[in-house]
Design goal:
With about 350 residues, this protein is of the alpha+beta class. It contains 15 helices and 9 strands. Helix 4 packs antiparallel against helix 6 and helix 12 packs across helix 13.
């Protein structure tokens, strides 16, 4: 019996390390049913040890918080064990009754979740409030498996422990597969937002950045500049030096913009020879100066094309991003202004007001 108790305590501690992610910073432990099983078959003492063991492998929290969580887990296991002593576990009906009593008590006394979820002012964090439904599922969905374990344990403890260990191993494999899949999806999502040629963020990343920047402005932040930059006579570069030279020029243009602008300024590849610059913290009085600086970054220093220096100019259309219109509309306004700038080339056209007047 001592060996079985040690195995159940160890399984509970290991199950605490397997989790189901239900939010950006919220995870649900799978240790609940294992804790209930240990307390029901081992009694109050084994239940208390199993509850305290849930913090044995936990890292990242301060030791005081871990100690409080371990104490809460021990009380939880003790209560389940005391309640389980009042019922017989013989037969299927006994196993069903024991599971029906142990799971609700364990769920109701899950103080470790509350200790981890309390934020400043003893308020529940938003992530936990959104995770109650998955938390209930994680506790009560394995109820049939718990009934099978309790029934088998009465006649064949070794087989029951092997059954519990097999379930934990399957959960661990599924958890590992989920993590690998999440990493792969995150990598694919990241690559889908990066231009393959210049490694600049692309128009999909621009849409997300515009939404995020406008949300910051609506919270009281300063306005931002949205500038469309179109290289002049880029077709001539391709026709004269070849498409490979044109591709290298695009890479060099992005590298220069990224190196000369502020760290907070974002440079996006829109497509072809077009770039978009999103510059936070720019007021209307500063918009024209910023657009002119963007134009001069290209024209004042030549680029090396096919080993020879060549001056490349660009046309700029600039508008102000504020809370008065959606970011996509501001982007479309900047694209219209750059068409005006292309009429003379090497020019910057700036929107004087949100009504659309240009200078």
């Amino acid at each position: 019996m001592l060996a079985a108790a040690l195995v159940l305590v160890a399984l509970t501690a290991l199950a605490e390390q397997l989790d189901v992610v239900v939010g950006r910073r919220t995870r649900i432990s799978l240790a609940g049913p294992f804790l209930v099983a240990a307390a029901l078959v081992g009694g109050p003492l084994v239940g208390a040890c199993a509850g305290a063991s849930t913090e044995a492998l936990t890292t990242g929290d301060p030791w005081r918080k871990r100690a409080l969580c371990a104490a809460a887990g021990a009380l939880q296991g003790l209560a389940i064990g005391l309640a389980g002593q009042q019922f017989s576990h013989d037969g299927v009906s006994g196993a069903v009754v024991a599971a029906a009593v142990g799971l609700p008590i364990g769920f109701a006394l899950n103080g470790r979740v509350l200790l981890r979820a309390l934020g400043p002012g003893f308020r529940l964090r938003r992530e936990l409030r959104a995770a109650w439904h998955p938390l209930v599922v994680a506790w009560f969905l394995p109820a049939p498996l718990l009934v099978v374990f309790l029934y088998v344990f009465e006649t064949a403890p070794g087989l029951a422990l092997a059954f519990a260990a097999g379930l934990l191993l399957a959960a661990a494999w599924a958890n590992r597969f989920r993590r690998r899949l999440e990493l792969r999806l995150a990598g694919e999502r990241s690559r889908a937002r990066v231009d393959a040629l210049t490694s600049a963020p692309n128009r999909y990343a621009l849409a997300e950045a515009l939404t995020s920047e406008q949300a910051r402005i609506r919270r009281g932040g300063r306005t931002a500049a949205v500038c469309f930059l179109d290289l002049d006579r880029f077709k001539t570069v391709n026709d004269t030096y070849g498409y490979a030279a044109g591709d290298r020029l695009l890479v060099d243009v992005h590298s220069r913009l990224r190196g000369e602008l502020r760290a907070s300024d974002l440079v996006f590849r829109w497509g072809g020879e077009e770039f978009v610059v999103l510059a936070p913290q720019v007021e209307r009085a500063e918009l024209a100066d910023f657009a002119e600086r963007l134009r001069l970054l290209l024209s004042t220093r030549p680029f090396a094309i096919d080993g020879r220096p060549r001056t490349i100019t660009g046309s700029v259309g600039a508008v102000l991003l504020d809370d008065g219109r959606p970011g996509q509309e501001a982007l479309e306004a900047a694209s219209r202004l750059v068409k005006k700038a292309k009429q003379t080339r090497n020019a910057a056209v700036v929107e004087r007001s949100a009504a659309g007047a240009a200078a």
